[in-house]
Amino acid sequence: MKKKLIGGIAAAAALALAMTGCAGGGGGGDDELITVGFAQTGSESGWRSANTESMKAAFSEENGFELVFNAADNKIEAQIAAVRSFINQGVDAIVIAPIVEDGWDDVLTEAKEAGIPVILEDRTVTASDDLYAAWVGLDFRNEGVMAGQWAAETFGDTPTNLVVLEGTTGSAPANDRAEGFAEAIEGTAITTLDSQTGNFTRADGKTVMEGFLQKYGDTIDLVYAHNDDMALGAIDAIEAAGLVPGTDIQIVSIDAVKDGMLALIDGKINFIVECNPLLGDLAAGLVKDVLAGKDVEKKIYVEDQSFTPEQAAEVIDERLY
Ligand code: GZL
Fold first, then answer.
1. Which of 41, 44, 47, 302 best tests ligand 1's pocket when mutated (most atoms within 8 Å of CB)?
2. Domain tally for the chain?
3. What is the extent of the structural domain holding 49?
4. Are residues 150 and 260 in the same domain?
5. Per residue in 244-262, is it b (16+ CB within 10 Å) or e — as a string?
6. Is 315 among the domain residues?
7. pLDDT, tens digit, 9 for 90 and up, residues 30-89
8. How far is the CA of 255 from the centre of ligand 1 (A)?
9. 69, 132, 198, 263 - which has most CB atoms within 10 Å?
10. Are 114 and 131 contacting, i.e. CB atoms less than 8 angstroms apart?
11. How far is Cα 100 from Cα 102, in angstroms, rounded to an integer?
12. What is the pLDDT of residues 258-289, one digit of tens each?
C-alpha cells in the first residue's frame, strides 16, 4: 500500500490548497456548495477540540462547503446512526473520525451503494479500503514506538514498574500506541504492572490512576498515557496522593496539546510525542479531489515529532494548538 508522508502542518496545508486548486483562497469550482456530513467522535479531549476546530474552519462556506456536523459523544452506535442519517440526507460526501476500528462494513457499504464517497480522518477502520476513498491521519504505532524508545533509553536496564492509561478500547490509536510501545520496550527491565482504559479523558485518567496508586502505591515508577488528557488526570491523582509527578513517578504521553506541553515545561510530564490534530485542510482537499474524480492517495500520514521539556519551552509560544 502506497503511503504519502507529509512533514509538518504548513506543508500539509499547502498540499491541501494545491490539491483543491484553492491556492489564493476561495472554494474554486462552481458556486454550488458541497454538502459534507462530518461524523466526529465527540469532545473527549483537548486534541479532539483542536481537531473539530480545524475541520470546521476547513469545511467553511467560504471554502465552498455546507457542513453538517455531528459529535457522537464517544458512542459508537450514535456515530454509525449519524453516518446513516447523512446517507439519507443525500450529502455529497461523508467524513468520519471513527471512534473504534471495527463495525463499519455495513454502513460504509450503504454509503458506497448510495454513491456517496467517504473520507476517514484521524482514526482508521478495519473495513476493506475499497469502502472509503482515502484516510488522512497520523502513524499511531510509530507514536507508541517513539514513546517506548524514550522509556527504554531513560530506564533501560533499571528495573522499572510501569502502568498504562489506555485510550478508548477498540480505537486505532489505543491499539496501535500499545503495540508500538510494547515493541520498543521489549528486552528492557520495564515491567507492566497494569494497563486500563481511561477513555482518552482527564476525569477517567485520574480515576484509573487513583486505582493504580491504591493497588501499587509508590512502587510505580512510570506512567505511559495514550494521550495528554489522561496524563493530566494522572498528575491530579499523583499529587493528591502526596507524590511528585515527573519525579517520584515519571510520565510519558502523546498528543502535545497546550495543557500537556505546559505540564511538560513544568516537569510534571517527562516526554511527549506529538499527534497533530490540524487535519481539516487536508480532509477538505481530499473531498474536493475525490468529487472532482481525481486520483488520491489511499493513506496520507502527517508527520509527528516529540518534545523534551526544553524543546517544549522553545516552541510553546508559536504552537497552533
Ligand atoms: C489521535 C486521536 C486521539 C487523541 C486523543 O489521533 O484519535 O483521540 O490522541 C483523542 O487525545 O481523544
1. 47
2. 2
3. 3-138+276-304
4. yes
5. ebbeebbbbbbbbbebbbb
6. no
7. 679 999 999 999 999 999 999 999 999 999 999 999 999 999 999 999 999 999 999 999
8. 7
9. 198
10. no
11. 6
12. 999 999 999 999 999 999 999 999 999 999 99
